[in-house]
Amino acid sequence: MYFDTHAHYDDAVFDGDRDELLSSMKKGGVDLIVNPACDLNGCAFISSMAKKYSFLYFAAGVHPSEAEKAGEDFTNRLEKYLLDPKCVAIGEIGLDYHYEPETKETQKRILRLQLELA
User: Would you tell me how many other CB atoms lie within 10 Å of the CB of residue 21?
Assistant: First the structure.
């Protein structure tokens, strides 16, 4: 049994062959996949993918690099995805000051709010 615990099949690089690739997973021995979201738009897309593929689950969250775009009401919107039976975790979340250190305070706030939801 293979379990891919961190995949991003929602990435645009898979737009041309996503369905073909995901449909071949069982044949290739991959039994389960968790695809974490990076933002709320990703949550919507991945949630719809998880409904289509029985072996695909998702994590809903806001990546630190997307924290500035989360919006004030993001926790209400995120909570909707967390209640989905195919949602198994909160993610992507965390702190990442390497690329955008100026967003440090926003990243902390968004992380704190997501941890409270968890």
Answer: 12
As a whole number of angstroms, the distance between CA 29 and CA 59 comes to 22
| Series of mean pLDDT values for 10-residue runs along the chain (118 residues) | 95 97 96 97 96 97 95 92 97 93 95 95
- Residue position matching structure tokens 């709010």: 113
Closest Cα to residue 54, out of 80, 30, 78? 30
d(CA 103, CA 118): 22
Kindly give the pairing relationship between strand 2-4 and strand 87-90: unpaired
CA–CA distance, 77 with 109 (Å, rounded to integer): 16
Q: CA nearest 59: which of 30, 81, 77, 75?
A: 81
The structure's pTM equals: 0.92
